[in-house]
Structures are given as C-alpha cells and as structure tokens.
Amino acid sequence: MSDLTFRPAAHEDLDRTVELMGLGFPAAHKFSRGFLQWQYYENPAGPPLGCNIDDGARLIGHLMGIPLNVRLRGRPTVVTLIMNVATHPDYRGRGLFLELVRRVAQMSAERGHEGVVGVANQQTERAYRTRLGFQNVAGLDAHVELLPQRIDMAAALARADFAHRWTDETLAWRLRNPANPLRIAGGTADSLIVEGASSLPLIRARGLIPREGLSASGRGVVAGPGVVLGLTPKGTARRSLSVTIPERLRPSPLRMIWLNHKVPGDQLDPDRILFSFLDFDAF
C-alpha cells in the first residue's frame, strides 16, 4: 500500500466517487452526483466523515459514513452510519476495504461519536467481525405484507437498546432521497408509515417510525403489498397477512453490525433493536 495515498474524502471528489461507485456496483443506478450530495452533505444530523484512496490521479477506494442520532440503551447519542464503500476492481484483494473501515472508525472515534453501525452482506460480514472487531448483531428480518404490521412504539422505544432518534429535519431529508423519493403513506396514533420504491416489481418498500417528537402528519389505512426490512424489539410487533422471505430467496441477506468506541466488546441485544430500511437507505 506504500504507493497509495489515503486521505479524508472531500466534496470535490464527488464526480470521481460516482465513477468509482459505478465500477464497483454496475447494477446500482442510484449513484449520481445529486444522490451523493444529498446523502453526504445535506444530512441535517451533521457533516460526513470518510476516507478515499488515490493511486496518482485515480480514485481507487472510498468509504463514507454519516452521523446518525440514536438512543443507545435509552441515552441520546450520535453514531457513524457506514453508507457506501467501494474499491476499484483492479485493486481488490489487497486489504483496502479493511484499511478504509479502520480509518473511518478512527475518524468516528476522534469526532466523539459513540460507535459505528452498518449493514453488511454475506461477503463482508465475516471481515467486519473477525478482522475489525464488529459485533454481528442480527440478520435483518424481511417479510412481504398486504397490511402494515402494527408496532407498539411506546413499548418498542422502552425496550430498544438501539433506535434512531428522528426529528422533523431528518425525516424531511430522508423523504427527499433523489434516487427514491419517499412519502408518508399513513399512520397510527404512535407511528408513521413511510413508503417508497423497492427492488421488487409492484411492491413498495415500507417502514414504520415513531411519531414521538415529530410534527409530520399521517393518518389513514394503508393497504397493498409492501416489503419490510429491519428489526423490532421482541414482542412489540404484530403482523397480519404477511409472509417471511426465506434467506435463500433474498438477493443478499443483510446483517446489522456494531462497534462501540467507548466500551470495547459492547454487545447489543438482537431482541432489543428498532431498525428499518429508513435507517440505512436499503432501496
């Protein structure tokens, strides 16, 4: 790696980052300058932190994280959410992914964030766990439903070791995703139902978030097929007219990962997590 330059990611790198993401993920069409500008630099929770790798004038590695306001065992704090990581196809197999994660985790700790959270696929989960010390918290549940599941949000928030702290500003930002605009489709007394496009034809991506602290309105019955991806505290969700998607039928089973900077070896309870596609931009 001595001939490569590791440096903090910068706004002026956006065009080259779009090119690199296209090489790394040719089937993903969401990566544009506008999308990365929104995701990285318009997040009201704060500025991003990331690392790039140059080989001369060529950008060959990228990892960016963004701040996420959460409740960690009931206490408000900020963590770094890993969003995008890519290495140039010509440079794979050289340990660059591991070094990118190490450096961004160090940046996160230096900024004072509590830890790093992310979602890994089957190919990267082992490296996060065995080489970088992350906890493999749990595989994300996935189901298709005709009617939205009901979550007792008061109980879910009371039991959750980890939950996103939504604000009007962060919700408005999340709804503005230029690659997949979302909408508040409805809600209950304690929840908002948010929908957007999914990777499945004719099926909406669907997530529930607490109304607590939000002024956004959303009432009424929501019906129709929706795919739900995430985790809810045990005993707080009730489904109807739904079917679980077996892991073997998922394109890439996803797992929540966690690293606490301040408490080495900290383990989140997988039965006490409130997490949805809205928290990590799955679609």
Summarize the structure.
With 283 residues, this protein is an alpha+beta fold.
Entry keywords:
283 residues, alpha+beta, two-stranded antiparallel sheet
Structure overview:
The protein has 283 residues and is an alpha+beta fold. It has two domains: 5-131, Aminopeptidase (3-Layer(aba) Sandwich); 141-249, no CATH class. It is built from seven helices and 17 strands. It has helices at 14-24, 33-41, 96-111, 122-132, 153-159, 168-175, 277-280, and strands at 5-8, 49-55, 58-72, 75-87, 115-120, 135-139, 141-145, 150-151, 162-164, 183-187, 191-197, 204-210, 226-231, 237-238, 242-244, 255-260, 273-276. The chain has a 15-stranded mixed β-sheet that branches. Strand 3 and strand 4 form a beta hairpin. The radius of gyration is 19 Å and the shape is globular. It starts with a strand and ends with a helix. The mean pLDDT is 94.
CATH architecture of the largest domain: 3-Layer(aba) Sandwich
Q: Determine the N-to-C terminus distance.
A: 34 Å
Main structural class: alpha+beta
Report the major sheet.
Answer: 15 strands, mixed
Number of helices: 7
Q: Which consecutive residue ranges, at least 5 long each, have pLDDT under 50?
A: none
Radius of gyration from the alpha-carbon trace, in angstroms? 19 Å
Name the helicity range.
10-25%
Estimate what percentage of residues fall within beta strands.
35-45%
Q: Per CATH, what is the topology of the largest domain? A: Aminopeptidase
Series of secondary-structure elements, N-terminal to C-terminal: EHHEEEHEHEEEHEHEEEEEEEEH
Overall number of structural domains: 2
**Overall pLDDT level:** 94
**CATH class bucket of the largest domain:** Alpha Beta
